[in-house]
Design brief:
The structure is a single chain. With about 475 residues, the protein is an alpha/beta fold. The protein is about 45% helix and about 10% strand. α6 packs parallel to α7. About 35% of the residues are buried.
Length: about 475
């Protein structure tokens, strides 16, 4: 997955039979993609190896001279409880298996078992170790609340606490080989999070992005896995799929909520078994990339409705982050406004315009259904038609008017009646006065902006203000 041999911890094979050590080592390398493997024929040397090397998993034979496998299993459990041990023995005895499990063995296999069964057991143990390490890393990072590499998130403009928590989580799981699921509405910046994780992962390969929305099963398979020559009519030459393009890097699959059930099965096999078949090829190839997936859809609802496979859903939930919509982080709007003004001015070859003081406040009253992407579009449009030194609010007011009504987010929960708990209701005139006063306060005295907050025209607001002043005289 990255510059290190996979997995990050060592796997020690212990057996006094050199032929078996060689055979098992080759099997784990070729069938499971495990490369960080050490072997030992002398059981008395095992504890010394464990004291010096970064070993996370031991595969142990029971019948060995000098120090038996059971004695060694007990010593490992006592002195290195963080190391996982699997027994691979020539003895097919239930009592022995039960005794080994009581001594702390993770699993027990017979040497005559099918290769696939042993390989699957080893992969289960490796994934469990990875999850344990990921959990410890996340706990440490999230508890400290500090980022070790804030530069990885330099392209994401925010001061929001929820976003900073997302950064800490992403940094904590960056080197994990497990997939990451990114959820959030369209336009919140899911791809920017994927780019940050790729930078933090240490992967020497590139980030390959594939938007799978609208791909039928055949096109999905061909796009991801490629094909060999003659695989189908028109396949005149070999085509490498995106999985191979992302080798030693990161594969980012966007909009996976749109995948058909057959395509979901293929994705599950890729993630679960770590292998895939190019179209027309009967030899499996191994996944050598970190996988990130993203969607704006609610996968839990789709799983409940039967349109998204449960096994894939739970496989993707290993690591998951949710990017909050822009309307839930209004404090970021002034920062993003300033950032996009500078970016747009540079892109359009203009001097950065000065925004009116009330523009940022005005934008915080809008729900931004298109999120950060919509704000960026507004700014670029405003800068493109800008003529004077001060940026005009006209294009922003127009864009907000064409979009969702200000202050009424479509997905926000219905607001409760603010007068529901009142014993004595205010008069209509008093209630209107309270509303006008609050709107003027939020708009910093700007009548045009306050009128928009109230959903009335500026002349109507001006008339109401005059009435309120006359009543005070």
């Amino acid at each position: 997955m990255n510059d290190q041999v996979y997995p990050a911890f060592g796997i020690l094979l212990v057996d006094d039979e050199p032929a078996w050590l060689k055979s098992l080592s080759l099997t784990l390398r070729s069938c499971a993609g495990l490369g960080n493997i050490k072997t030992c024929q002398e059981s008395r040397e095992v504890m010394g190896i464990l004291a010096e090397a970064n070993i996370g998993l031991v595969l142990l034979d029971l019948t060995m001279p000098h120090l038996s496998g059971e004695d060694l299993l007990q010593q490992i459990a006592e002195q290195h409880p963080d190391i996982t041990t699997i027994v691979v023995s020539g003895l097919n005895q239930l009592e022995t298996a039960v005794r080994c499990m009581k001594l702390g063995a993770f699993d027990y296999f017979i040497k005559t078992d099918e290769e696939d069964r042993i390989v699957s057991g080893v992969l289960r143990a490796v994934r469990m170790k990875e999850m344990q390490r990921d959990y410890l890393e996340m706990s440490t990072r999230l508890a400290s609340g500090e980022l070790k590499h804030p530069e990885a998130f330099a392209n994401i403009v925010t001061a929001d606490r929820a976003m900073l928590n997302v950064f800490a989580y992403v940094e904590a799981v960056a080197k994990s080989p497990q997939p990451l699921l990114i959820t959030g509405e369209s336009g919140v910046g899911k791809e920017l999070i994927a780019q940050a994780l790729h930078r933090l992962s240490g992967c020497r390969g590139k980030l390959v992005t594939v938007n799978v929305a609208g791909l039928d099963d055949t096109v999905f398979a061909d796009t991801l896995f490629g094909h060999v020559r003659g695989a189908f009519t028109g396949a005149d030459q070999l085509r490498r799929g995106m999985v191979e393009e992302a080798a030693d890097g990161t594969l980012f699959l966007d909009e996976i909520g749109d995948l058909s059930i057959p395509s979901q099965v293929k994705l599950l096999r890729l993630l679960q078994e770590g292998e895939f078949f190019p179209l027309g090829c009967d030899q499996p190839r191994r996944l050598k990339a970190r996988t990130i997936v993203a969607t704006h859809q609610n996968l839990a609802e789709k799983e409940g409705a039967g349109t998204f496979r449960r096994d894939l859903f739970y496989r993707l939930r290993t690591h998951q982050v949710h990017i909050p919509p822009l309307r839930e982080r209004p404090g970021d709007i002034p920062l993003l406004l300033d950032y996009f003004l500078g970016e747009a001015a540079e892109a359009l070859g203009r001097k950065k315009p000065t925004p009116p003081k009330e523009l940022a406040q005005f934008l915080t009253t809008y729900s931004f259904p298109g999120n950060v992407r919509e704000l960026k579009g507004m700014v670029y449009d405003g800068v493109s038609i800008h003529r004077g030194r001060m940026l005009s609010m006209e294009s922003f007011v127009k864009a907000v008017g064409q979009g969702q009504p200000a202050g009424k987010p479509s997905s926000a929960p219905p607001r409760q009646n603010p007068f529901a708990g009142f014993v004595d209701l205010p008069t209509f005139s008093d209630a209107a006065a309270f509303l006008v006063s609050e709107a003027m306060h939020r708009a910093n005295g700007n009548q045009t902006m306050a009128a928009r907050l109230l959903g009335i025209s500026q002349p109507a607001l001006n008339k109401r203000l005059k009435m309120m002043r006359s009543e005070l005289v």
